C-alpha cells in the first residue's frame, strides 16, 4: 500500500473507538504519524470493540509509523491546547486535525443513547433537560471549537494544514418527533463553524471541511440496539439507496480525500456520507 501521508502528523480526537479509531488507523496506514486522543483511551472496551493490539496507539504503531496517546477532556480549553502541544512535542508538528470526539453519549456518566433506536432521556426540543442540553453542546461543539483553535495557531505558523470535523445528518434533518434536539443543534453549529473557520483560515493555507455521516454501525450501536440491531439494520438499509448502513471505514476514506491533495481546492464544505439515505429521508444520525 502506498503511504502518501508519510512525514505528516495527524491528531485524531475521539479516537479511542468507533469512527475516530477508524480514522486514526486509516491515517496511520497511509503513513501519517498519529496522535490518538480521547477522553478515555480505553473507550473501546466500554462496548466490547475488539482491537488488533492492546491499545489503539499500538494498532497505529503496527503500521510502522509513530503514534502517541493523549487522554484529554476536550470540552476544557486547556486540555485541548495541551493535546495540540503534546502532539507537536512528541510527533514533531501538526498537519492534520480530525475532530471525531462527540456523539450522543459524549461524556462519562451520560446515559447511553443510540443514534437510531430507543432513548432513555426525553431529548425533544421543548423538553430536553438542561444538563443534557449543556453536555451535548459542549461534547460535540465546544470540543471541536477548542481543538480547532489550538490547532489553527500551530498550522497558521506553519502556513498549511487540513482540518476535518465530524458533523452529522442530524445537522440538517429533523426527526418528526423533535428528539435528539441538542445533538442536532450542536452538529448544525459544528457544520457552520466549519464554514466560518474555513473562510478565516483559507488565506493561511489551511483547509477546513466537515463530514456529515448518516447511520454508521459501530460496536457501540450494535450493543446499544441489542437484540433489535438486526431488524433495525435491515429495515433502515432497505431505505438507503446503496442498501447498507455505513461503516467507520466509509468515513475514514472520505477523511483521506479531505486531507489529501485530491481535495486541494475544497474548503468550507460539509460532505454527506450516507449511502444516499438523505435522499429518502431515513438518515438523521
Ligand atoms: P462514539 O460515542 O462511539 O465515540 C466517540 C468517542 O469520543 C469516544 O471514544 C469518547 O470517549 C470520545 N469523547 C467523547 N467526549 C469527549 C471529550 N469531551 N473529549 C475527548 N473525547 C471525547 O461515537 P461514534 O459513533 O464513533 O461517532 C464519532 C463521531 O461521529 C461523533 O462526533 C458522532 O456524533 C459522529 N457521528 C456518528 C454517527 C454514527 O452513526 N455512529 C453518525 C453521524 C455522526
Q: Mind explaining what this structure looks like?
A:
Residues 105-125 are annotated as: Disordered. Keywords: Oxidoreductase. Belongs to the short-chain dehydrogenases/reductases (SDR) family. InterPro entries: NAD(P)-bd_dom_sf, Sc_DH/Rdtase_CS, SDR_fam. The protein has a single domain (9-273), classed as 3-Layer(aba) Sandwich (Rossmann fold), CATH 3.40.50. Strands 3-2-1-4-5-6-7 form a seven-stranded parallel sheet, sandwiched between helices. 40% of the residues lie in helices and 13% in strands. It is an alpha/beta fold and 285 residues long. The chain has helices spanning 18-29, 56-61, 77-91, 130-158, 181-201, 219-225, 229-237, 248-259, 277-280, and strands spanning 9-13, 33-38, 67-71, 96-99, 161-166, 206-213, 270-273. The two termini are 32 Å apart.
Task: Write out key terms for the chains shown.
single chain; alpha/beta; Rossmann fold; 9 helices; globular; binds nicotinamide-adenine-dinucleotide
Main β-sheet description: 7 strands, parallel
Note the beta-strand portion.
Answer: 5-15%
By CATH, the superfamily comes out as NAD(P)-binding Rossmann-like Domain
SS field, number of helical segments:
9
Region (Disordered): 105-125
Keywords: Oxidoreductase
Pfam families: adh_short_C2 (PF13561)
Protein name: SDR family NAD(P)-dependent oxidoreductase
Amino acid at each position: 500500500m502506498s503511504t502518501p501521508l508519510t512525514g505528516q502528523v495527524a491528531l485524531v480526537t475521539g479516537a479511542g473507538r468507533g469512527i475516530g479509531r477508524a480514522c486514526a488507523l486509516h491515517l496511520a496506514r497511509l503513513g501519517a504519524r498519529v496522535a490518538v486522543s480521547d477522553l478515555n483511551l480505553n473507550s473501546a472496551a466500554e462496548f466490547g470493540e475488539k482491537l488488533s493490539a492492546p491499545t489503539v496507539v499500538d494498532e497505529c504503531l503496527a503500521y510502522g509509523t509513530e503514534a502517541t496517546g493523549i487522554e484529554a477532556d476536550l470540552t476544557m480549553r486547556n486540555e485541548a491546547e495541551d493535546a495540540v502541544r503534546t502532539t507537536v512535542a512528541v510527533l514533531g508538528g501538526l498537519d492534520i486535525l480530525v475532530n471525531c470526539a462527540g456523539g450522543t453519549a459524549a461524556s462519562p456518566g451520560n446515559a447511553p443513547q443510540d443514534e437510531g433506536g430507543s432513548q432513555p432521556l426525553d431529548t425533544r426540543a421543548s423538553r430536553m433537560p438542561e444538563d443534557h442540553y449543556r453536555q451535548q453542546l459542549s461534547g460535540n461543539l465546544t470540543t471541536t471549537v477548542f481543538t480547532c483553535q489550538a490547532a489553527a495557531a500551530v498550522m497558521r505558523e506553519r502556513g498549511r494544514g487540513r482540518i476535518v470535523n465530524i458533523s452529522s445528518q442530524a445537522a440538517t434533518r429533523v426527526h418528526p418527533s423533535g428528539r435528539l434536539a441538542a445533538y442536532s443543534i450542536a452538529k448544525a453549529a459544528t457544520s457552520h463553524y466549519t464554514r466560518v473557520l474555513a473562510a478565516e483560515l483559507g488565506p493561511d493555507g489551511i483547509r477546513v471541511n466537515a463530514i456529515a455521516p448518516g447511520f454508521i454501525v459501530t460496536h457501540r450501536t450494535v450493543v446499544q440496539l441489542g437484540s433489535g440491531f438486526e431488524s433495525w439494520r435491515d429495515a433502515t438499509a432497505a431505505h438507503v439507496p446503496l442498501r447498507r448502513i455505513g461503516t467507520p471505514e466509509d468515513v475514514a476514506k472520505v477523511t483521506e480525500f479531505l486531507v489529501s491533495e485530491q481535495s486541494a481546492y475544497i474548503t468550507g464544505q460539509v460532505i454527506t456520507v450516507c449511502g444516499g439515505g438523505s435522499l429518502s429521508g431515513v438518515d438523521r444520525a
